[in-house]
User: Fold these one by one.
Assistant:
Number 1:
Amino acid sequence: MEHRSLGFAIFVHLAALIVALAVLAPLAWLFVMSISSPADLSAKPLHWWPDTIDLSRYRQLLTPETGAAFLASLRNSIEVAGMATLGALIVGIPAGWAASRNPGLGWTLGAVIATYMLPPVALSVPLYLILAKLGLLNNVFGLALVYLSILAPFVTWLLKAGFDPIPRDLEQAAAIDGANLWQLLRIVIVPLAMPVVATALIFAFLLAWDEFFYGLLFTSNQDAKTLSVAIADLAGGRVSDYGLIAAAGVIAALPPVAVGLLMQRALISGLTNGGVKG
Amino acid sequence: MFTERLTLRAWGLMLPLVLVMLAVIGWPLADTVRLSFTDARLVGTGGGFVGFDNYADMLGSRNFRKALAATLTFSIWSVAAELCLGVLVGLLLNQRFYGRTLLRALMILPWALPTVVNATLWRLIYNPEYGALNAALTQLGLADSYQSWLGLPGTAMTALIVADVWKNFPLVALIALAALQAVPRDIQAAATSDGANAWQRFRHVTLPYLVGPLMVALVLRTIEAFKVFDLIWIMTRGGPANSTRSLSLLVYQEAFAFQRAGSGASLALIITLIITVLAVAYLALMRRAAGQGG
Amino acid sequence: MKPTRIAALMAATALTGTAALAETELNALFMAQAAYSEDDIRAMTASFEEANPDVSVTLEFVPYEGLHDKTVLSMGSGGAYDVVLFDVIWPAEYAGNDVLVDVTDKITDEMKSGILPGAWTTVDYDGKSYGMPWILDTKYLFYNKEMLAEAGVDAPPATWDELRAAAQKVKDAGLVEYPIAMSWAQAEAAVCDYTTLLSAYGGDFIADGKPAFQTGGGLQALDYMTTSITDGLTNPNSREFLEEDVRAVFQNGDAAFALNWTYMYNLANAGEDSAVAGKVGVVAAPGVEGVSEHSAVNGSMGLGITTTSQNPDAAWDYIVHMTSQPVQNEYARLSLPIWESSYSDPAVTEGQEELIEAAGKGLAVMYPRPMTPNYQEMSMALQQGIQEALLGMASPQDALEGAAENSGL
């Protein structure tokens, strides 16, 4: 193990380089497209780096006058993902703790997690009809409620796994000291499990940020249309300017990518605890 | 008494989650089952009981068989490729080399990229006239001329699979890496001094540590792949000649574009059933693997 | 509500540009593809809001591919859209599902007499009008004058056979690899091109209530399309092109011929990003000797009021504004007016005489796609059949017979 041949070392470095290129190249190209002029992007042979850096797409998307629709979708995505995440934590923290402390409740949690197998299309028609009846179609609250169906099982599962290693003695001591349930959760459990709560929060937010199918079905205009739907519209419509699509993609990718890089350690431990993003 | 109170209390703590899940999943699912036996339309009239007609129509249709084949092709190949690549890259990341920390960090990027952005990005890369793939291939001398990738049945599915694998293999690699890091060094060393070659060491020392986490990844990725909608919706919309129309796209078309909520519901339940069977089969496999002390 | 929340809401409102004074809010759904550009539609809407300060209109743009589904899905949410753009093929379905308001009584005599009869077919179904025609459009044959001259083609082709011969000359001269660009992706665009050819060959979609496109002119049309690909005349990538891809290829100088909507003329011939500006010619799509002089598909679109609209009167005012002659004349560069007298107005015709001439011939022979409530299903089956033939997965005959069987007709 310790005496590696030179040949093996070269092989490992070469393989690492190839993997790095394969991962980075498409992303780098997305960025380059977003700052290239349309002429550069339709040139043959293709210009891999623009002659002049063109930031007009970012300006167009981010100024209120020209990018109203895009900015509205950005805001909707933040609102929907934020509300859905909050909701998922509110129901997930108590449920995750209860399941962690009572193995007898395992089957309930199992049933909740099994809903992950359901394709969204299996729920979409009734959800559509229900939202219509409640007047919650094309509405950020309605969409956030629907997103709960994806986030809540996931968050509960992650939290349960995070609560498991926390020793029971502490809660018992607190309970004997007369702490009520709310105090117990607030003062003992959640602070101890803060890392896993943070991980669950991030995962939930990213899941909601990523969602497309329900967004496509249940939103109609700037009141609720999310970023992923807006980008799909751009990609499928007047697409003569590939740079504009790329710029929108870069903006949509920035939050999750930044979070991913900053919180890498927490995310990887969350992932390997069995939580896997869809 | 403490435990008893806790159990009651535990149920109380579970309640909000259970209520929410009943509202956003339980009830809609039950309603989907009801709808699947009717000829309900999405907007307007209809809704009479039609028995198993929808199921019979769907299962007997050419479109269903075609979509099932497309979905299976997509799922099997992309999951297989993700697992193989993931394990290989996981093994690589477990070696020592310059820039290892950086490469491990980079692996998070494709995973973090929103699916819709990933699909859009690859659609642009595959553009037959101005795409980067054609440009790269011709400039490197690997191809004589530009060609269509998403417009030909022979390449469209492969192109979709590549886009999916690129986004998802890094996750498998990270899971594999975490599992590998749990392999005790001294067992490795002992095996080496016992004269085991690299393959034997991998097979008998490393692999047992990988099986569990990889099975989880396998189950989750298979379920995800089987549900695929957004990637295909954005990259090909099911074309060319419906060769990449997945089951989820078919349900969308049936229930929303054609507004036949009833038959759309029956098709959605058929998909659910297939996924359940797959998942149960996997779980049984996992149990058996665990039972053999893997 | 906490003050911060109110402030956030106000900031948000300012962001979306909604005028604070407006009492009536309208939501309108348009497409971001072909015909009027997004900027044009915004400008037209701004002039409406200026004239009606108590009404504000929020515009929503989706790709054509999403227009039908978005409209149908929005029916569950009251007031998501007050005004929707609809394609000529949808009134039958929309009428059956109660999507659009019957506006027959609101149409004035001036409208009836002033607007071209062909345009009315866009919004009429079963003797009722479900909106106002807005985009009067068909597919024209565009050509690159410079390339034709270099290849020794003296006149633009008048028949589809001549197009084949001319394209061969361009190819032989080595000017471009594939002279013709078409929008034959699995989408409605392919059905539009197919319809153009079907009308040229004198085919029928439906005869005696049964599919008839798998025989006669319909079969010849697909034969022509398939052969033009195998002969290397039509760009094989056309099988994944939509209209905008065709425009990109044509205005980049990578094609000598293209079939596309009106909007491409001024974008390709005068657009800043066009490499072929000033070299673009346009004629009505060709005919077939002994069968037709020209060919054309009715690709017109109308504006209608949804039955869920809370403000149908304001919505109608908006539609009247958008379809009025002055507005249509002012923005006649990307879409030609529906008004008959506009075509003799120098302000409209100036600088696009060629297009106007082509329109005179093309609009007169616009051929309809079938008027059936199950159009979406029929179209999907047809798209698959067309693609199977174009991709060599089935013979045109087998492909069309399969489509007829799957069409739900």
Number 2:
Amino acid sequence: MKAVDLNCLVGHWPFRKLHKNTLEDIQNVHRANNIDGGYVASLNSIFYNDPFEGDEELHEILKDADGYHHVLTINPKLLEFEEDIKEGIERFGIKGVRIYPGYHGYSLDDKDLAELCRILKENDLPLFLPLRMEDPRLNYIITPGTIAMDEVKGFLKSFPDNKIILLTAFVSELKQLEDEIKDHSYVKFDTSGLKDTLFSIENLTAVFPAEKIVYGSLYPLYTFRSTYFLIKHAEVSEEVKAKILSCSW
Amino acid sequence: MLIDIHTHIWGPPGSPPCSSETIESSKKDLIKAGEKYKIDRIYVSGLYSHYPDEEEIAGLNWEVAKFIKEEPKLIGGFCYVNPAHSNAMDVLKKGIEEQNMEGMKLWVATFCDDERVFPLVEQCILYNIPILIHAFHKAVGQLEHESLAPNVANLARRYPEAKLIIAHLGGNAYYGIKPIRNCPNVWVDFSGSLFRRDDIDYTKKLIGADRIVFGTDMPGASFYNNLGQVEDGDLTEEEKEKIYYKNALRLLDRRERIL
């Protein structure tokens, strides 16, 4: 079993200094905690007017990194994004696409996002959907849009055949989405938002199949061990822990 | 050793001799967390509404005192006071002298540098007990009387002998730490649901590790939010020990005047 972190990033965050924001930093914290690899996206790409330039930087960083996979950032409101996906597949060997509706200013029922989902399904690529990057109480300079749970419900129902990973959802939000997550054959959620209750893995595995939960840290924006320890020390079977730590579709 | 300086029992208080259902649920969670996470001592205050009346305050402190009696080894208490109440001093005295509590808790009913707080702080100096102050800078949802770091700094400068703890790194460390960095009588806890990778390193850079204490805000937050911040931080083993318990022991020791 290979343990992976589905939600890690390299680059700069424009609102505060990140002290551990390189691939080497991610690899160090992963190695120290027996994580074998990760799905990495570019923080810079969120804010570049052409996100693909951030992904070119990311490719240079990841090209020789065994076990670390490139997740391409796409803003579907920018023209010709389909070409970027094609190039991402051919040049970077991307393993997924990450979007930021809250930062890029569109809703989950946007027609361009629907087109993106069509392309991703055609290429069997998962969509990484962060519900947030930071707690809104800590917003600085800009106020990203929020994603309502009703929007997520509608989105999951509209794209039943797409592979989707919900990132940084709170426990309370996952409870609201319980039916939609259970009914969707290909949706999973990560662990980076499980901050608002005690014993969250124990409680969530009582509600959802372990296959629905994947390990994601949101490192280096968030601390790594805060979510890794949730799984490592959870009172669940080793089999359940292994399922969470090794994402498979 | 591990001391959690900041937890709560949440909910409407029950009626003696029975705790309310929600308070019982908080207590069970805290006891379970204490066992599972090997926490040696958990400090609790009772909270419910933002502007509690006298009856609610009395009930919540009764619940905490009951919890201390039930679990004396694990549980310590902070006496919750609403400074707007005419009986606030009596509540504090009862909490410390009769209910075996070890500190005072201020939440969001008044700013912490409101003049109605002053006599309470003077009494805490006499008792030589710490004051745990909720302070939270929010980009959204700031409450009307919710203290910010400058309020804590004002109080600290007025009462340099008062042992103050600003909770939650003041909400956002970038607003919370600079105002209190030159106040040697202010400690910080990083309790709550936020666990940004760099907050502890930033805080240590500005005020050092001697003024950081471990807290979680359980049961409304995951214990690992806070443990992970220490374990991921650029801290020596000695600094971790200070944060996990040594700084708290110094703060809570009523026999020694550290200021």
Number 3:
Amino acid sequence: MEFLAHLTDGFEAAFTLHAAGFVLLGTFLGIIVGATPGLSSGMAVAVLLPLTFTMDSLTGLIFLTSVYVAVTYGGAITAIMLNTPGAPENAATALDGHALTRLGQSGRALGAAIAASALGGLLSYFLMLFGIGSVAQVALTFGPTEIFLIALSGVMVLGAVGTGSPTKILASGMFGLLIGTIGIVPTGEWRATFGEPFLADGMQIVPVLIGMFVVAELLMLAGRSTVVDADIEVNRSVGAIFSGLGEALRMPVTLLRSAFIGMGVGLIPAAGATLAAFSSYSVARRFSKEPETYGKGSTEGIVAAESANNACSGGALTVSLVLGVPGSVTTAVILGALTMQGLQPGPMMVVQQPTLVYGLIIAAILSQPAMVLFAVLAGNAMSRALTVSTRVLVPVLLILSIYGTFALRNAMFDVWMMLGFGVLGYFMKRYDYSPAAVVMGVMLASITDSELIRTMQIFGHDWYLAFFQRPVSLVILIILVASLARAAFGHRRRRTSDAE
Amino acid sequence: MGHKRIRPDAIRIETMTKRFPFGELVVPAAMLVFVVAYWRQAYGLSFEARLFPTALTIALLCLVAVIVFKLFRQAPSVEDADSAEASPRIFTFGRIAVVLVPGLLLSVWTVLGGIVFTAATTFAVALALGERRPLLLILLPLGMALGLHVIFSVVLHARIPHGLTAGLLG
């Protein structure tokens, strides 16, 4: 009964003209930004975050979630049309999507991607709607040791699942965590604030993420004349798109399996949609009746990748809201928006703010049909705008970043920080470090630090034994160590085989 | 006088350059500078306040040591001059302008005001990146300045200084 009451409140909050308007706006902007290569989902949400400063909590979150939902599909447009994934999570889509484009069947590929994205997303958010209460109940039994380890795993897992050097990714994460410890400590002391009052509240997440995601990317783009070279003839008739839609619907097993894989991967902090898409693609290929068609224009491959990467968003959002630990880089930005609104993510949020949580999930469900509508009606026009000149894009996004950062606290200090993080982020991208791990580290530092201090206060002198004596924390610890060891050995094996 | 015969592999050796990837050291150096600055501030804190940063610092220093060790073990790498030329340059005029132009203009942010700052920065960065279409160089800065003034000052109520346009905006 309580669940039904929460559901009704959520529906009432999300089914308003005001909220629907922001769902449409967020979806529209998300598809545009997602369709622009180089502008990742984290960057899209980061750049639009300042617009939510004056919105109420629910509207701001609905807007950002709609962007988040749509941006992954937007990235599929460029992956299919131009073999240039809008974001890393669309790389698996490009394998078969662009192969179909080369065969003159881009409309079919787009249709399959639209249907798979929407259905994967819908299933994921419906599961979230009915499951988030139970997940929160489980999370309420977690103590400080468990939350400390889960938060720490948010950084560690990036090193374990990333494609780059685990050493560099982990170093980036540790660096981010150390930066995030600046500010007033739970013990009341001022830690490494460099005498700067603006750092007393800790390192603000907005300058870090706009610097690391937006400015660093703009510095990369500044070396090119256009974002992408698009000289390919494409067939994008609405009829072909509907044919692809129908084809995807005739693959219920692939759709469901990929959505569950996506949702499962999304529940692992920081694992991300890229891992979900590639895992699902590999599994679909293994179970396919025509595995030889994969990579040569298989719609099943597109369905597997797109369904999983969109379903991942539901899992990632669940972890973020229930544990306060970002499920992905983009949800880290959404968590930043939550904390800026004065809300504390965690299991109690589901209990204390049911209208907000359920309203948010319902808005995410509503944004799926909106995404289909925009994708079918405006997908053509959007994909034509891909050859946008960096001479226009870079100054526009740079100024937006400066204003967005300044508007946070009306402080020029934040703008300087953003530029500094931008330059550092550029070097990090250039030399295969992970700006995303830095952002995750800064985000997670306060929760890890405060939970560690709580552990010490609760368990006294033998506090470190608590990590081994509590069964759940021991299991998380073993998984964490095993995944890191596997990543280190896997990377070494890859390098050895590459050298051979 | 016979011509001196040059072996093809000798020509190739001449075009190969020994390069140490100094750029690779930028991030580890930044991390180490930050660690030193951090601990100059934080060394006197209580055990609870120091424990987590200490653990992080030890882990970070170990990881940086591994990165630098790997770097020195692989370097100096012998690169083909052609491939070295093919890799994109770290510093280009455009990239420097993207940081330097807003940096310089931000230092006089309150004097210029938001509108003039936006127009000047957009114009200068677009020009530095190679934009030469006069109409775009006029309309883009003006559109950005007015659009952002409306969004941030009027809608979002951010306290953007008026600066040179104070009289114009009242």
